[in-house]
Amino acid sequence: MTRPPLPRTPRHEFPPELRRRHTLDHIRECGIGAVAQHPVTYRRWGPAKSIVVTVGVFLGLGVLMGIGASSDGEVPFVVPPLAALGAWAVLYGLPILLPLAVRDIRRQRRLHRAVSAIPRVGGHTLPGEVGDTPGLVGYDAGVLRLYTARGVALEVPFPSIYVVEELPPKGFSGLPGIDVLAMDGTWTEFRVTDNGKLLTTLEQAGTPVLRAVNRF
I need a labelling partner for 89 at 20 to 30 A (CA). Which of 24, 106, 137, 198 fits? Predict the structure, then answer.
């Protein structure tokens, strides 16, 4: 049984089954022919903004404490800001950022190894994955393909696609992607290093694309 998301969880962080139900409800409301004019919205800071904001908060408090302490002649001005940066490292950097960075590095290495093992592929491709299978995602000649070291693992012809939903990066530093709903009701989630190229190609081919707009 899938655990329901916590209150105020961004839509793109929902479990796939729940997010897809919301997507179908949205399409029924606006109509498949108007999905391009009715994008879904989400809120996401991204890694850089998260680091800048949290460092700014800690450093700002440190500066205020430094001003007060230096005016009283108790400690040099630089000590509280340095202590605040140390507190940021202990409370946020080491327990939160470091594990996420390690996980991101491992994922990138895994993807790089998978791509390096694939024989040269012609056409337009991007490093990415479908589910737990990494490889190269091809998006030319009217077909979405997943290339692996063993050959083509998956093919989705553009004419068989009912709608494509843009997927923002999931988690702190995940890959962006697209969720493809075929005419037969099958969903396929592609994660790639740059989903903009996939979305533009699909739109130019006349495929209905449901865009996602970041409100931050």
Answer: 106
Q: Which helix (H) or strand (E) holds 126?
A: strand 125-130
Maximal C-alpha separation, the chain: 74
Distance CA 14, CA 18 (A): 6
| pLDDT of 1 | 44
Paired tokens of 199: 């979305």
Q: Average pLDDT, stretch 92-107?
A: 90
Give Cβ neighbours of residue 158 (< 8 Å, ≥ 6 apart).
142, 143, 144, 202, 205, 207
Cα–chain center distance at 13: 9
- Does residue 5 have a pLDDT over 60? no
Does 118 have pLDDT greater than 90? yes
Token look-up 């950022």 returns 97
Mean pLDDT, to the nearest integer, of 135-164?
A: 96
**Considering the domain 16-42+119-214 in this protein, what is its CATH number?**
2.30.29.30
pLDDT for 52-62, tens place per residue?
999 999 999 99
Name beta bridge partners: 179. 165, 189
- Give 73's Cβ-side CA count (13 Å radius): 0
- Per DSSP, 141 falls in state T
Question: Where are the domains positioned within the chain?
Answer: 16-42+119-214, 47-116
Residue 14 has pLDDT above 90, yes or no: no
